[in-house]
Amino acid sequence: MSAFCTEITPQCPVEATTYGYYPNLGGNIFFAVYFGLLGFCQLGLGIYLRTWTFLAALGIGTFMEGAGYVGRILIHDNPWSMSGFRLQIFCLILAPTFVAAGIYLTLKHIIIHFGPQYSRMNPKRFTWIFIGSDIGSIVLQAAGGGVANAAGTNQAMVNTGNNIIIAGIAFQVATMSVCGLLAFDFLIASRKHLCEGFQGESVTEKPQQRIWLVLIAEILAYTTVLIRCIYR
Predict the structure, then answer these.
(1) Which of 118-122, 142-146, 207-211 has the lowest mean pLDDT?
(2) Which UniProt keywords apply (predicted)?
(3) Domain-by-domain residue ranges, the chain?
């Protein structure tokens, strides 16, 4: 974004902005409301069930997603809005890291529940290793963004900053891929135990149904966050 442009004018057209277009208003309002509602639902459930760590991860993640789309609404009103740009770029980059933290935390408890003996890694290490790796990827992306912003008209520095950002994203994709492979290996190793059911209950009983819902939700969440990282 040009330091001299603050609004759309003949000298500062929308095509010259970072995105080069007006973000869709309806879509961004929908996602801002959607993630806001998810955040409040997570807040209520987390307090009611006292799942404090999970609440922190998913609560922060969903509210930041909502805030990011609010930033994009501001950009729709004024594509040169630096406050809107910074809000959306910060929140939409960082929020999935908290969602991923919730995924890693859930995976840890799934492994503990079904049998840590089937996992190649101690389940307690999942959160430390993979959340730590996600933080590392965010640091790389932030460093790359800083280099690119400080570059001014120096295209070589801009390219260097962009390459650092890409490296951070690639590291996050690699981290999630390794986690996915370990999770898949666990599912294969424990498939007999999974099929036998939960403490001898039939698959029609509620505790067993809830376990399978958790597994499905975990796979869906992991897949969508990974696709998002690859897309970026």
Answers:
(1) 207-211
(2) Membrane, Transmembrane, Transmembrane helix
(3) 21-231
Q: What is the average pLDDT across 102-125?
A: 89
How does the average pLDDT of the chain come out, rounded? 85
Please give the C-alpha separations between residue 221 and each of 22, 97, 138, in angstroms, as whole numbers: 29, 12, 19
Q: Which residues of 53-85 are buried (b: 16+ CB within 10 A; e: fewer)?
A: ebbbbbbbbbbbbbbbbbbbbbbbebbbbeebb
Residue given tokens 């998810």 in the structure block: 38
Three-state secondary structure readout of the chain = CCCCCCCCECCECHHHCCCCCCCCHHHHHHHHHHHHHHHHHHHHHHHHHCCHHHHHHHHHHHHHHHHHHHHHHHHHHCCCCHHHHHHHHHHHHHHHHHHHHHHHHHHHHHHHHHCHHHCCCCHHHHHHHHHHHHHHHHHHHHHHHHHHHHCCCCHHHHHHHHHHHHHHHHHHHHHHHHHHHHHHHHHHHCHHHHHHCCCCCCCCCHHHHHHHHHHHHHHHHHHHHHHHHHHC
CA 104, distance to chain mean position in Å, is: 12
Instruction: Give me 232's structure tokens.
Output: 């970026």
